[in-house]
Amino acid sequence: MDKKKKKSWKRIDLGEKIAAWIEHNWAFIIVVVLIFFFYIGYGFSTQNDLIEIENLKKELVQIRYRALNTTSDLSAKSKPSYIEDIINSGELGLEINSEPPFVLSE
Prior knowledge:
- This protein has 106 residues and is mostly helical.
- 80% of the residues lie in helices and 0% in strands.
- The protein has helices at residues 2-24, 26-77, 80-89.
- It is rod-shaped.
């Protein structure tokens, strides 16, 4: 029985020491907890920023492919052979000039 009483007195003594330490260093503990919360918040913010950057990179690649496709379509539609086919079809009511061009002034 004496052993149990000694342990309990040690626990009470240890608890008092911890309570005294906390009471003495409460400002330090609050600062450490605040720094910890800011560290976690910064980590989450950084992770969200990285996810957003990856999404924007994917969107940029898609936009580049669309621009390349549009440029390719535009260059194909502006080829002389394509324009000549449209004129020959008669949809526009235009004719190809059969006379050679001549210089107005020399």
